[in-house]
Design a protein that fits this description.
The structure is a single chain. By secondary structure, the protein is α+β, with helices and mostly antiparallel strands. It has 13 helices and 28 strands. Strands 1, 2, 3, 4, 11 and 12 form a 6-stranded mixed sheet that branches. A 6-stranded mixed sheet has the order 18-13-14-15-19-22, sandwiched between helices. Strands 21-20-24-25 form a 4-stranded antiparallel sheet, with no helix packed on it. Strand 20 and strand 21 form a beta hairpin. The longest helix is centred in the N-terminal third of the chain and has 20 residues, at about 110-130. The two termini are about 30 Å apart. The chain binds adenosine monophosphate (AMP).
Length: about 525
């Protein structure tokens, strides 16, 4: 059987891990680093590079350096978060024909899947170098809160990179798997995962080798980059007060400020004050202007106060969904680089009333868990079973914009559910099945995942036809929907790909293009 690798495809950094000799291990990349920045840099020509080298060129070449692409996976150009990013990103976003957000570099447009595929390719090559053989299969992790379109987009990225994605695993579940696999203990654990772009909190029970996720919650739009942003805004304001200059439209200056903000934020996790020095940030009539200031940890905490407060509600929701109190939790695992911030650790301790577990490396836990899952699929790991859940309710739109849920949130996957619906008008021979995901009782407030028609229903009085709609969620959390007229047996079905999925043709083109460009 061919080897399967585990990949943590992070917003900021990615990790590749495998089972070797029965144990999950992280593989160092060609530069010798165990994590690889999820950054893709283009040269003026056809060449591109991934990782540290790409991150390094961000300052001199911001428009050709793509980072944080995970936030755009499966997202619409006009969706609030894509819009928000468009206004702030150093590189250019364009709307493709379906309204999806694509990246424009060197006059060419790339889907977020294609950019992610380059990061995945680097991970694939790292594993190939290690084993000296071609690798074609992977387990990839995603935030638990990723919706259907985002999961599909991740699978497509894998395909473009030449990897069959054997399983999509939720990041917090993977972290728990790594923890449980190494400790071998039965426990009820919370995984608190705050990375560069997203926040997830999950509650799991590990018992006798069975890992069951009992609740999950989070915020898809809260992560380290938001913390960097508040620091960056503060620096812009200080510079404006000092010099009277507004440099918020200067891309190169912004990139330097963004980097300085992130470095200061990270340093303030271990030291109480840090100097920020950015010489020659701008030039005016009086000559070059510099930024120089001392930032203390308490100022950082003040700037980030609201962001830290936003962490609490999802934690409360997960506990209430799981029907447990903090006293019933055995351990809290911290995952994601942002959990190194002391104010965040204090917040976690206040919410869960216990000090977080320190034994696992927050940067590697998810990747190691992906490797454990790849070992389960590949047969190297036999004693572990993983039961994951779906993060949001799934249902269809019915009369008066009501949302009729077929599958409730936190249902263990894979799962199946059916419900019978009927027509609202006499002689109606067509029904439109409009599939939504979310928690609102109004369908239009939930995310539209896809639509299809069931036609040819024999004309009868309103309320007489019986249309059975079935939802089937597979182990990747991807939804298959079917509708059948129970009288005639007429049926229609779709795999939900949202509107952000690439067409088969686009996928093939992207796959060929990914192979043709040089990777350094
Ligand atoms: P991840 O997506 O898990 O790789 O998390 C990356 C995020 O963690 C980025 O926003 C980093 O700036 C942040 N991060 C990494 N190290 C630290 C640190 N020591 N203190 C605070 N934030 C950190």
């Amino acid at each position: 059987m061919s080897r399967i690798i585990g990949i943590d495809l992070g917003t900021t950094n990615s990790v590749v891990a495998v089972i070797d000799g029965g144990e999950p291990i992280v593989l160092p990349n060609s530069e010798g680093a165990r994590t690889t920045p999820s950054v893709v840099g283009f040269t003026e020509g056809e060449e591109l590079f991934v990782g540290q080298q790409a991150k390094r060129q961000a300052i001199i070449n911001p428009e050709r350096t793509v980072s944080g692409i995970k936030r755009l996976m499966g997202r619409k150009y006009r969706a609030p978060e894509a819009q928000h990013l468009r206004e702030r990103l150093p590189y250019r976003l364009v709307e493709n024909i379906n309204g999806d957000a694509w990246v424009s570099v060197n006059g060419r447009n790339f889907s977020p899947q294609e950019i992610s595929a380059q990061v995945l390719r680097k991970m694939k090559v790292t594993a190939e170098d290690y084993f000296g053989e071609e690798i074609t299969e992977a387990v990839i992790t995603v935030p638990a809160y990723f919706d259907d379109a985002q999961r599909q987009a991740t699978k497509e990225a894998g395909q473009i990179a030449g990897l069959t994605v054997r399983r999509i695993v939720n990041e917090p579940t993977a972290a728990a798997l790594a923890y449980g696999y190494s400790s071998g203990k039965d426990a009820r654990i919370v995984v608190f995962d705050l990375g560069g772009g997203t926040f997830d909190v999950s509650i799991l029970e590990c018992s006798g080798g069975v890992f069951e996720v009992i609740a999950t919650s989070g915020d898809n739009n809260l992560g380290g980059e938001d913390f960097d942003r508040v620091v960056l805004d503060y620096l812009l304001e200080v510079f404006r007060k000092d010099t009277g200059l507004d440099i918020s439209a200067d891309k190169m200056a912004l990139q330097r400020l963004r980097e300085a903000a992130e470095i200061a934020k990270c340093e303030l996790s271990t030291i109480s004050d840090t100097n920020i020095n950015l010489p020659f940030l701008a030039v005016d009539d009086t000559g070059p202007r510099h930024l120089s200031l001392l930032m203390g940890r308490s100022l950082l905490n003040d700037l980030c106060f609201e962001l830290i407060e936003r962490l609490e509600a999802p934690c409360r929701k997960a506990m209430s969904d799981a029907g447990i109190t903090p006293e019933e939790i055995d351990d809290v695992l911290l995952v994601g680089g942002m959990t190194r911030m002391p104010a965040i650790q204090r917040k976690v301790e206040a919410i869960f009333k216990r000090a977080p577990h320190k034994g696992i490396n927050p940067d590697e836990a998810v990747g190691l868990g992906a490797a454990v899952q790849s070992g389960i699929l590949g047969g190297e790991v036999r004693e572990v079973v993983l039961l994951d859940v779906t993060p949001m309710a799934l249902g269809i739109r019915v009369e008066n914009d009501r949302f009729s849920a077929l599958i409730e949130r936190n249902s263990t996957i894979p799962t199946r559910a059916s419900k019978v619906f009927t027509t609202t008008q006499d002689d109606q021979d067509l029904v439109t099945i409009s599939v939504h995901q979310g928690e609102s009782s109004r369908a239009s407030e939930n995310r539209l995942l896809g639509m299809f028609n069931l036609t040819g229903i024999p004309r009868r009085k309103a309320g007489e036809p019986r249309v059975e709609v079935s939802f089937d969620i597979d182990t990747d959390g991807i939804l298959h929907v079917s509708a059948v007229d129970t009288k005639t047996g007429l049926s229609q079905s779709i795999v939900i790909t949202g509107h952000s999925g690439l067409s088969q043709e686009e996928l093939e083109r992207a796959t060929a293009r990914a192979r043709s460009v040089g990777l350094r």
